[in-house]
Design a protein that fits this description.
With about 375 residues, the chain is mainly alpha-helical. The chain has one domain: Farnesyl Diphosphate Synthase. It contains 16 helices and 2 strands. A two-stranded antiparallel sheet has the order 1-2. Helix 3 runs antiparallel to helix 4, helix 3 packs antiparallel against helix 16 and helix 6 runs antiparallel to helix 7.
Length: about 375
């Protein structure tokens, strides 16, 4: 078993343990609340766990006594040694689940990881039970509350991890980074929905930069940068080390989201778990779209603008839009941006004053998130 695999298992175990302690709390209030925990379990099972891994390797990169090279046979530190980092890593995964629940509501997305999204699960529950009123409204309202509950639980998990940390200054630093991350994600989400509606009021020359700003605050920081810095803060990393991890994490996080934007338009549904072209139906004004508009003919640009965001887009119209975007050269330009950001991140990593073993693991993670197909 690799170190990263062991960490993923520990995080899943910590999440399962936490949810088990919440079962009796909600059941005591009312048996009707059981679906809240059941659906939480469903959304917190599996996944890529990138945020947990970046958090762990941020911690290992600056931890006193951390290995400078890969151990011959890694058995892991004791459970007590890992309590703070598994708590923080688990909190990040629960926070991510909350963000996805809310994001699917905002985007009217019916699927997540190849299964029904939270609001659709609650819709089905409403229909199965034969309750009165709109199943759509019940599904949406219940999913909003589930997302809020998961947000609260992510805080509780983080606090439990911080309580096990003897270094109170490090605990406060990690908490501060977590709080900043929450604000940035919410701001980025607002900028995302704003851009879908206000893009036409901005100068054409600004659209790409505005889309890049959404990427940075909605995804890049909380997917890579924040987990790295939270983990490093837990280990008492120096200002220099945290600055290096930020300088590594931001361009890598941007590469991560640029890849996600490509997958949102061209991804294989059987691999991504989302319908092909889903971002086109949702009207996402991504860097990919901004770059495509720069070189499309006036007629092709008009068709793109008219059809982007139409939830009724069928496979034929999606294929036409995909072809138009491809012919614009935007895909190659985004691929070039991904390569540039990945190179920038790895260049920073090469000179960072952190553990050699952690550097090697972070290099592998960087390539994985930038080149992934799901």
């Amino acid at each position: 078993m690799t170190e990263s695999t062991h960490v993923v298992d520990l995080v899943q175990s910590r999440i399962n343990e936490f949810l088990s302690t919440r079962d009796p709390i909600v059941a005591l209030i009312s048996p009707d609340l059981v679906p809240l925990v059941a659906f939480s379990r469903q959304f917190l099972s599996g996944g890529k766990r990138f945020r947990a891994l970046f958090c762990y390797w941020g911690w290992q990169s600056v931890r006193a006594g951390a290995a400078t090279s890969a151990p011959a046979a890694w058995n892991g530190p004791g459970v007590d040694d890992l309590s703070p980092i598994t708590g923080a890593a688990s909190a990040l995964e629960v926070f991510h689940a909350a963000a996805l629940v809310h994001d699917d509501i905002i985007d009217n997305s019916d699927t997540r990881r190849g299964a029904a999204s939270a609001h659709k699960l609650f819709e089905r529950l409403h229909g199965t039970k034969g309750w009165v009123g709109s199943s759509t409204e019940f599904g949406r309202d219940s999913a909003i509350l589930l997302g809020d509950l998961l947000l609260g639980w992510s805080d509780e998990l983080l606090d439990e991890g911080l309580a096990a940390l003897p270094d109170r200054e490090a605990a406060l630093a990690a908490r501060s980074e977590f709080n900043l991350m929450r604000t940035e994600v919410t701001a980025g989400q607002y900028l995302d929905i704003l851009e879908e509606r206000a893009w036409h009021t901005a100068p054409e020359s600004e659209l790409c930069d505005r889309a890049m700003r959404v990427i940075e605050f909605k995804s890049a920081r909380y997917s890579v940068l924040a987990p790295l810095v939270i983990g490093a803060a837990l280990a008492g990393g120096s200002a220099e080390q945290l600055a290096s991890l930020r300088a590594f994490g931001l361009p890598l996080g941007i590469a991560y989201q640029l890849r996600d934007d490509l997958l949102g338009v061209f991804g294989d549904a059987s691999v991504t778990g989302k319908p092909s072209g889903d971002d086109l139906r949702e009207g996402k004004r991504t860097v990919l779209i901004a770059l495509a508009r720069q070189t499309l003919s006036a007629q092709a640009r008009r068709v793109l603008d008219e059809q982007l965001g139409d939830p009724a887009l069928d496979a034929t119209r999606i294929a036409t839009l995909q072809q138009s975007i491809t012919h614009s050269g935007a895909v190659e330009r985004v691929e070039a941006l991904i390569t540039e950001r990945l190179t920038e991140a790895l260049t920073v990593l090469d000179t960072a004053n952190i553990s050699g073993h952690a550097k090697n693991q972070l290099r592998g993670l960087a390539d994985k998130v930038a080149r992934r197909a799901f």
